[in-house]
Amino acid sequence: MHKYILRRVLLLIPVMLGVSFVVFTIMFFTPGDPAKIMLGERAPAEEVALLRTQMGLDDPFHIQFFNFVKNAVQGDLGRSLVTKRPVAAEIWSRFPATLQLSAAAVLIAILMGIPIGIISATKQYSAFDMISMVIALLGVSMPNFWQGMMMILLFSITFRVLPSSGYGTLGHLIMPAATIGTSAAAVITRMTRSSMLEVVRQDYIRTARAKGLSERVVINRHALKNALIPIVTVIGLQFGSLLGGAVLTESIFSWPGVGRFMVDAIRTKDYPSVQGGVLMLALTFSIVNLAVDILYAYIDPRIKAQYK
After folding, report:
1. Statement to judge: residues 68 and 115 lie in one domain
2. Could you give the CA distance from residue 18 to residue 22 in angstroms, rounded to a whole number?
3. Dihedrals φ, ψ of 86, to 5°?
4. Do 189 and 221 sit in the same domain of this protein?
5. Gap between the Cα atoms of 245 and 23, Å rounded
6. Per DSSP, what are the bridge partners of residue 86?
7. What CATH number has the domain bearing residue 261?
8. For the chain, first and last CA: distance in Å?
9. What is the pLDDT of residue 302?
10. Segment 123-146, tens digit of pLDDT
């Protein structure tokens, strides 16, 4: 397992280099001059040229990319063109809010998705199964921004029971977490049902029932445990995506997270912030995937045995 974990960690290096190259290339060829943005449109050409030289913007592409990677490895993602603060500090100051929102959304998704998926699989083609799959299909298809606006219209404007935006209390958390949590729950529901249907048809499940075990024990102890690998994969992907920033949801509810920070950076053409935000998103997603891969070995002993 130690060799497996080390190998997976080392694989993060080329992934991050590739992401860095793509992001830097896109921002390099994007129209706009960071020096002019910092000084203003009416700044003298001499001052703009001097600042470009100081920032290294006159260097060739490969030199600028090398300096960017070298500084990023040291934790320096540059300075925001808008706030003049280090980009890394800007991201980390917003990361707790994104982590709180992501954890709440994933908790909602798990509490809703797994039980509904299990019941749908054990009662295949029943009315409950049909209704839950239709609702899950709607949840997957429904855009988060539309769902968020409908929740604001219903709970903030019509009934006035929840705040429409802001951060700091449980009331502020409920609607944005429910918006992205229900969408993730739909994906988890469908995956749980599919995985459970595949497992409950296996011979060892029939054997467990023939031994006289109760249906609850058969489902929870034997079927669910062997169906967890794809379910955990989906949960990990959802959590990784949310940690990278629920961009639209955070913007709609004015949630001060990484996603909203990146939207604001794109609007103001704050290139260092965009680069740093995307790099942070990729790193977070890769770390969550690594944690999911390690978790596989503890769910399924056969996977752990391969690395002994």
Report:
1. no
2. 6
3. -60, 135
4. yes
5. 17
6. 79
7. 1.10.3720.10
8. 7
9. 65
10. 989 999 999 999 998 988 888 889
Q: Are 124 and 206 in a shared domain?
A: yes
What average pLDDT is seen over the chain?
86
pLDDT beneath 70, residues of the chain: 1, 244-245, 301-308
74-127 pLDDT, tens digit each: 888 888 888 889 999 999 999 899 989 999 999 999 999 999 999 999 998 999
In a domain, 284, yes or no: no
Task: Please give the C-alpha separations between residue 175 and each of 6, 141, 241, 243, 286, in angstroms, as whole numbers.
Answer: 40, 19, 18, 17, 28
Which pLDDT belongs to residue 176?
93
Domain match, 68 and 118 both? no
Residue 158, in any domain of the structure: yes
* Cα–Cα distance, 308 to 286 (Å, whole number): 24
- Residues 137, 250, single domain; the answer is yes
Could you tell me the residue range of the domain that residue 65 belongs to? 2-73
- The DSSP result for 159-191, as a single string, is S--S-SS-SSSHHHHHHHHHHHHHHHHHHHHHH
The total number of structural domains that make up the chain = 2
pLDDT, position 307 = 58
Question: Are residues 104 and 49 located together in one domain of the fold?
Answer: no
